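Exam revision sheet. Question 4 asks you to relate a sequence to its structure. Input first:
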Amino acid sequence: MDQSILFKPLKMGDVELPNRICMAALTRQRCESKDLVPTDMIIEYYGLRAEAGFILTECVPISQRSLAFPGEPGIFTKEQVEGWKKVVDKVHSKGGRIYAQVWHAGRASLSTLQDGLEIWGPSPIKIRGIHRRGLTEHEVPHEMTIEEIQEVIQQFRQAAENCKEAGFDGVELHGAHGYIIDQFLRDSSNQRKDEYGGSVENRSKLCLQVIDEFISVFGRGRVGIKISPVGRLNDQCDSDPLKLYTYLVKELEKKKIAFIEVKDDNDPANLFDFGYPSSKEQIPDLFDVFRPLFSGILLANNQYTPTTAIEGIEKGKFDAVTFGRLFISNPDLVERVRNGYELNTNWDVDTFYTKGIKGYLDYPLYSQQQQK
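Answer key, C-alpha cells:
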C-alpha cells in the first residue's frame, strides 16, 4: 500500500494542505478558570501537533449559554480572543494551519454550566439519559423564538469575527453530534411548526444562515462544516436522513464552501435504548451519497487508521481524514506515519476530559521514546 498519497498536497478552498493527516476537533476541557481563556498548556498542546495537514480546535462556544462542558475555551470575550491568538501564533510559528470549530450546544447543555441561564433548543424535547460527562439528567429546553434564533445567528457571526481577529486560518461550523445546528436539522429534536421546522428546507435554514454569516466574514474558501447524518449521540435521529442531507449538501455545494467533514458513524440499532435504527440501515455508505453531490473537499472522521485512510482516498471516496485519538497519543503523528514508526495506541481514556498535564502533554514524541 502506497502511503505517499497521505503526503500529496491538497488544495482545500483557499488553503494548501501539505498532507492529508488532519487533526479532528477534540474536547479536552483544560481551561483552569471560569474565564475560559486558553492557557499556556493549551498553547503547547496545539503547537506540538502543528505538522497536521490542518488542525481543528476543540469546539469553541459562542456565548455563555452555548457551553456544554466545564473547561471549554470560549471565543466570546476579548480575553478569550487574546488567548486564542497565542495558540494560533504558536501553530503558525511552526508552519501549521489551524481552524476553529465553532459551536452552540443548544439542548445538550445544562443550566449549571451556564450560570443558571435557561437551556435553549428548537423544541421542548429533552435528551434522554445522562449528560455526556455523567453530571445529571438533561433538562427540557426552552423552545427558541424567532428573535432568539436571530440572536444566536448574530452570536455565530460575532464568533467568526473573533476567530478572524485571533488569526485563525478558517472556521468549521459544528453541525454534528446533537448540538444546536444538528438539533434544528433532524426531526427527532426539531418539531417546530414555523419557518425553522417541518420540511427539510426549513430545518436546514439555521445551518445555511450561519454558513452565510461565516462566508461573509472569512470568504467561502475558508469555511467548512461537520455533519453526522446517522449518529445517535445526544438522542439524535432523522426519519429520512438521505433526503435531509442530500438537500443540505446540495445547498452547501451551491455556496462553494471549502470542505465538509463527515462523521462516518456505525452505531448499532437501539443504541442507548433510544429505539433508533442502526446507522448503516439508514445510509449504508455516506460517501457514496455525498461524493457525487459535493465538489469541495470531503473529510472522513471516526476511528480511521492510516491504512483505512489510504484505502478511502485511493478509491476516491474522500480526500483526507481527521484523526482524533491517534493525535491525542501521538503528537507527532505525521512524522510517525511518514517514517513508518510505531504508533502509540495506549491513549488514556480516563484523562480525556480531566484537568492538568496527565494525558494531555505527557505523551512522548517518537524521538523522545528512542532516547529512553
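Marking note for examiners. The two ends are 31 Å apart (CA to CA).
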